[in-house]
Amino acid sequence: MSNQKKRNFQIDAFKHRVVVDPKYADKTWKILEHAIHEIYNHNASGLSFEELYRNAYNMVLHKFGEKLYNGLVATMTSHLKEISKSIEAAQGDSFLEELNRKWNDHNKALQMIRDILMYMDRTYIPSVHKTPVHELGLNLWRDNIIHSSKIQTRLQNTLLELVHRERTGEVIDRGLMRNIVKMLMDLGSSVYQEDFEKPFLEVSAEFYSGESQKFIECCDCGDYLKKAEKRLNEEIERVTHYLDSKSEVRINNVVEKEMIANHMLRLVHMENSGLVNMLLDDKFDDLGRMYNLFRRVPDGLSTIREVMTSHLRETGKQLVSDPERLKDPVEFVQCLLDEKDKYDSIISNAFNNDKTFQNALNSSFEYFINLNTRSPEFISLFVDDKLRKGLKGVSEEDVEIILDKVMMLFRYLQEKDVFEKYYKQHLAKRLLSGKTVSDDAERSLIVKLKTECGYQFTSKLEGMFTDMKTSQDTMQGFYASHPELGDGPTLVVQVLTTGSWPTQPGVPCNLPAEMSALCEKFRLGYKEIEQATEIPTADLKRCLQSMACVKGKNVLRKEPMSKDIGEEDAFFVNDKFTSKFYKVKIGTVVAQKESEPEKQETRQRVEEDRKPQIEAAVVRIMKSRRVLDHNNIITEVTKQLQSRFLANPTEIKKRIESLIERDFLERDSVDRKLYRYLA
Amino acid sequence: SGKASSKEMERIDNLFYSYANRSSGMIDPEGIETLCSDMEVDHTDVRILMLAWKMRAEKQGYFTLEEWRQGLKSLRADTLNKLKKALPDLEKEVKRPSNFVDFYNYAFRYCLTEEKQKSIDIESICQLLDLVLGSHFQAQVDYFIEYLKIQSDYKVINMDQWMGFYRFCNEISFPDFSNYDPELAWPLILDNFVEWMRAKRT
Question: How far apart are CA A418 and CA A76, in angstroms?
């Protein structure tokens, strides 16, 4: 079987006969090195890129990649060292220009070199994880030029100096700046940041810290803000012209901090020109500027808001407690409305209609309006005045505007029930004396109150209107069925529903025998009239005022002549009184603001009315919760009632105790904070 | 012992009838006064109130036979002498905390003499406070009585306020009121009292 032995057949790959010229690598590299020199010397036109590419390709192919790469590094480095010298040698302004020119050259050269060494860039470099040619060129530029000891600091100082010159008003070559800065950015964000941005921000902070100090010593607040705004805009512009757009936020922060945040309080409180003065003088532009600048820094807007709020509260407090103002309720309310208008327009014109500012405005108004317990009464008197005469000849739209403003004040009131009480009294007088100017305006306000506070609030007021209408119809019906009465004296009867109208104590008034006696007596002292008629003081004074002090209606004469009735006054029948009318209608003088005892009485009635409301609220809450602790009851009751009035915690406590006494509630036997509902 | 107990019952009843008013069949105020003088105790003494509590007497100034039997039986007293000797023990019994709240509560109810009456006038309350709580919380009681007499917000005191004051004495540090929180559910009269005390001390 030995002859059967077979040899395995093997085919070898065909082997190129490789030129093994030992000098091959050196020779080829020399060619390439020469080419690089020529490129840097601007002599590239005579080179054959095709040939050079092939040479580089072959070197890599023949495993001389490393030699090629190292050669490149060495050659480029030596060129850059040369370049560095020439840049260093440049004098004054030409420094940046030289740097820029060489940078452009280097970039062009780098492009060509990369093209020649494309194969190495694609295959050899990735396989050994070396830096690609383009990036290598940038790194070498960075290390040999930008970070060379003779250039690095000089470059930085030159750039910062240019910025400084521009800030002080000089014109600089922005194009050159842009190119150099772009170079730094091309070298990597860390180069841009370390070699330029960081020192730039530091120098800027120093600059603005000094400048702001100077400004704040000599400028008023408005001027300062104008200057700060201008600086900020300049920096924003600078970034768009020659800096990295990422620097915008950072440089803005510097300006904001140095020029605004560091001086915020001083600016706001600056004597004679600070925020309060701006508010007083309606300086919309300055206020707007302050708003827009301050919103850029932390706590900026809250600073403005707090100063505005405390100023508003302070002036509001003065306004509502000024005894002069209290003399004229209509004027008082008008002042409040004017103040509100003023701040509304400040907030819309200067504060960007900022919600938080609107809230601050509202809470301030709510605060000081309620400082004066007479506000509800006065607001009702204001309405009364408007609806009696103030709205005469005013267009329907304007009436709505006025009423809406009144409603706005009404919303601020904590004691809405007090307003209601007065409103009812005033409305009753308007209706019964036929003094109301516009039925539509009256009804419009009722509708507004109804939307604001619900049906319950206005049902009685509406009942009053219904009564008036019914009475009128009844009267007409009466005269229609009795035509013979047409020539006699006219009778006006008003049928009023009990409960809908404010109750007034029955007023004794012995007429008319005593009144005729009054004529005979000719002259009577106030005290005598009071004794004779037994009309209560407040009403009597009002009547006498109507009869003696109203021009054209003064059937009585009073000594001494004055607007008010004093207890020492004497009264005469006015012989000189004439009138072209047969019938002289003497209305009582319009609802005056209440005298002190009347006010007390109304107050007491309101307090009494609140008791059952608080108790009802407690019972409602306890009925659904069964067990609840003290604080929660107080909170919930307050919440339930706040649309009408602000319940006093002490009063709530009193009501709870009363409910305990009447066995609606009991205290929990273990946890004494808890109350239990007793069904 | 059944015989003994019926004997005891008889003696208790006899003692009752020796003080009872013949026509009403109850010991009335006059009878109580006689009983007091026999025991040599003042009729306004707190121990008489304690005796009433023990008998669970419903009506002020009167003991019914039922109440008398029940009270004396549990005191194990069937003679005047024994009853007199039982008083110190009764006093101890009342002063045990669990009993005292009940006694304090009873004292208030005992003073409600009219139908549907729910509160007691300030003057009587002052006397009652001094009587039942004076020995426990002398200082608190003295100041509170002083306050009650000068204030004008309250003319009467109800059960809730009465019990509230007892809790107040037990829980609140006196006289600094350091742990008094008016936000908690104390009756308003105590808020006012503390406020008055604080104003007085500064």
Answer: 93
